[in-house]
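Troubleshooting log. The previous structure file for this entry was overwritten by mistake, so regenerating from the original sequence record. Sequence copied from the archived sheet and checked twice against the printout by T.R.
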Amino acid sequence: MADSADPSPEVVAVGAATVDRFYDVTNLPDPDGGAFAREATERFGGVGANVATGLGRLGRDAALIARIGWDDLGDRVLADLEAGPVSTALVRRAAGTTTHCVILRDDAGERMIVTAGDSTVRLRLNDDDRAAIRAADAVFVTAYAPDPVTAEIVDIATEDDGPALAFDLSGPLEELRGRGTEPSTIDHVVETASLFVTAEVAAESYLDCPAEAAVDALRDRGCSRGAVTFGTEGATLFDGEETTEIPAFDVEATDTTGAGDAFTAALTERWLLGDADPEPAGRFAAAAAALNCRAAGARGGLPDRDAVRAFLAGRDA
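Regenerated output below.
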């Protein structure tokens, strides 16, 4: 169980801790259309909580900064976090509804996700948060975090002896509008981040170019190191002028929810905190993502280091 005492973590993750409600539907409805849900399940997610938990499972001392409501959803989210490997000392409760997601999923695995609740959009940093971030080796923040939070984290990361900044451009700009990080702040993140991660859809939205050109576009904007992910097609890592292609591992997936967060957590652990070379760091991250897909939920299959190493050893044999 995670220690909820005042943390002095290696890495602080900032973002949502949510309840994800999955509905397995006959079809994803068109506008004015409908669908039938054959089964409904509830699991825990949130990009911030997923990445923090991924880092904790990989052996890093991790804390989560998040805001949840004084409601039944918040009770369940907090109980789940307290049973995991992440410090909850910086998770606070306040008025409002705990952030939660409604996820429609068809037989082919295609999804629609709707996020509700105002607890995360009302998150702001306090003095304890700032002290923990400044003392950490690295801070992770998702683009779904409110813009004032991300902007302040960027400022802290640029201070003398500030932490390394890992950032995930978690969704396209239309998803972020009004509840997440603004494009002008993302511009500052690109120039500041020690590790910038984006999936292809988010990259195309922010950079206004095909995802295949995203690496060059990010370099042109001053990004020093990052990854562009392509789902089952793998990822492209870049560090300065060096580029490394990382194939995805083919596994029989139970649920792909959270695969990108598992990849981001493991890449942060290996490449940013662990200072591994890009190719082994990318393979490690791809393996962690593949293992997470073998279990249900956004973090149901998050592996520890031994599990990732065993998976890679089996693939290399």
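The chain has one domain: 11-15+47-93+130-316. Archived copy saved in two places this time.
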